[in-house]
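FYI - complex with iron/sulfur cluster, inputs then prediction.
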Amino acid sequence: MKKKDNDNISLDAIITDAERIKIQSNYLRGTISKDLKNEMTNGFIGDNFSLIRFHGMYQQDDRDLRLERNQQKLEPRHAMMLRCRMPGGIIEAKKWLKIDDFATHHTLYKTIRLTNRQTFQLHGILKKDLKNAHKMLHDIGLDSLATANDVNRNVLCTSNPMESLIHKESYEWAKKISEYLLPKTKAYAEIWLDHKKITEIKTEKEPILGKSYLPRKFKTTVVIPPYNDVDLYANDMNFISIVKDNHLIGFNVLVGGGLSIDHGNHMTWPFPAVELGYISTKNTLSVAKAIVTTQRDWGNRVNRKNAKTRYTIHNFGLNVFKKEVEKRANVLFQSVHSYHFIDRGDRFGWIKGIDNYWNLTIFIQNGRICDSKNQLLKTGLLKIATVHKGNFRLTANQNIIISEIPLGDKNKIEKIAIEYGLIKHVSNVRKNSMACVSFPTCPLAMAEAERMISCFIKKIEDLLLKHRLEKKSIIVRVSGCPNGCGRSLLAEIGLIGKSLGKYNLYLGGNRIGNRIAKIYKENLNEKEILIDLENIVKMWSESEILEEDFGDFVIRKGIVKEIINPINDFWS
Ligand code: SRM
Ligand code: SF4
C-alpha cells in the first residue's frame, strides 16, 4: 500500500522539492517563526525561503551590489519584497498614509511599486522589520496572504470608474472569490500577527486547496466589457460580467490563459484564455471551486514548467476539462453571452461616474511611486491621501485612480495634483507602456526592464514624431526575462530579455489583448531594435489603411505570421 500523506497526493509520487516543501510545511508554517529569530542571517533558510512566498514575501538581494559584497566575502544584502493582497485594487485613500510611512521609514528603497495585478509591493524590508510590515497592513485591514506561490493570487477586477454601479457588483465578486479561495490555514495570523503560539496542529484542513496546495500559481480576473484593462487572456480563470437591465446577471467563464515561456523550450508556450461557457451569478463560487480543484488534482506536479492550467487543459482536452468542472460544480455551462472588448488601456484624466462622483486617473511610469526632480509623485499622492475621503484604485496597467471624489473636492485635489506634477502631458505610446520590475531586485532578471523603458519609450516617441504618427498609440511592453511579467507576449511591440542589453523582439499582439505576439528577431540590442522598428513604423506611416493598429498592420503585411494556435504557431 502506498502511504497517503495528504489530501491530494501520495508521498511516493512527490518528485519535486516544491511539492515536498508544501506537504511537509504543516499548513505553511514551516519553521518560519524560529527562523525570524535567527540573527545570524538576514535571510530565511531551507524550506522557509519558499514558504514565506505563500505569506506574500520574496527573499531578494540587490543585484547591483552582489559582486561587490561577494568580493568582500559578505552575505548578499538580503531583504524581502512584500506584495499586498488587494482584490480589485481598491483601498481607502487614508490607508495610504500608513503604507507610505512604512515605505519611507522601513524599506531600503523608500518607494512603493504598483504591480500589474492591482496591488503594491514594498521592496527592501529587512527581516527584523517584517512583523511590523504585516502589523501595519493588518491595522489598515489588509494582508499579504496568498499573493505568491502555488495559490490563487490577487483577484483582478476592471478598474472602470464610469460604470460605477456594475463595477460595484463585479468588484464584490472579485472580493468574494478572493476570500473563498484563500488558504484557510491560520499560519499567517500566528506567525505575523502573534495571534497564538504555533503548536502541532492536527485538525486543520484546506478544504479547497488541499495540503499540497495548487501545482502552480493560479490567476483570476473579473472583467467588465468593453474594457479588458485587466488583460484577462493572461489568466487561469476569468469571469466576464454579463449585464441585463443594469444588473449583473452572470458571467462568461474563460480558462487557461498564461504567458510565461522558457527561451528555446518548445514544451512551454503562451496561451490566451478560452471560453468554457456562461453561468449565472449564483453559481460563481461553485464553478470557481470546481475549476481550482480540477487544476489542483489534474495539474502537473512533476514538471513545474508544465504545471499551469493551460497545460492541464492541453493534456486532458478542453471538453474533458469542462465536463469535469460541470460535474464538480453541479452546473451546466450555457452558451456564452455576446461580449466584446475595445481596449486595454486606462482612461487618464478626469472621468465622471454614473454615481456623479469624479475620478482622476494618474499615469505612473511602470508603477514606481517615488519622488524625482521632475515629479513629486510620492509626496503628491501622500498629500492627496491626507485630504481625499474616497478611494485609491490601482489599475492592472500599473497606474492609480483617485476615485469617488465629490464635486466639491474636485478643485482641491486637482490643485494638489498639478502642484506636485501628477497631471502632465503623456504621449499615447507612453500611456500604454508597461515594464516588469527586473533589476536590481528580481533574481530572475536577464535584462533591464523598468530601468530602461522610460528612455526606450522616448526613442519610440521620437520615431513616431518623425513619421508624423505622434498621436498614435502602440502597446509597448518590456519584460526582463521570459517569465513575461510585463505581459510582453500580449503587446504590439514586446521585448523579452535574453541577457544584459539583449532582447528578443516580438510583434503583433492586438489592442484587446487576445492575440499572442510572434517573435520577429532574436537577441537584439536596443540600437538594433530601434533600426528595425524605424523601418516598420515608416511602412505603417505609409499604409493605405489609415486607422489600422500597429499590431494588425504587422500581421496584414506579413512582417510576422499571425499566431492562431500558439501550441503550433508560437515556435514555428
Ligand atoms: Fe511575475 C516571478 C514580478 C506579474 C509571470 N514576478 C516573479 C518574481 C516574483 C521573481 C521571483 O520569482 O523571484 C518577480 C519579482 C520582481 C520584483 O523584484 O518585484 C515578479 N510579476 C512581477 C510583477 C511585480 C511585475 C510588475 O512589474 O508588475 C507582477 C506582480 C503581480 C502581482 O501583483 O501579483 C508580476 N508575473 C506577472 C505576470 C502578469 C500577470 O499576472 O498579469 C506574469 C505572466 C502571466 C502568467 O502568469 O503567465 C508573471 N512571474 C511570472 C513567472 C512565470 C510563471 C510561469 O507560469 O511559469 C514567474 C516565475 C515563477 O513563478 O517561477 C514570476
Ligand atoms: Fe523578474 Fe522576469 Fe518577471 Fe521581469 S519578467 S519581474 S525579470 S521574473
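Residues 436-438, 442, 444-445, 449, 479-481, 483-485 surround iron/sulfur cluster (ligand 2) (CB under 6 Å). The longest strand covers residues 247-255.
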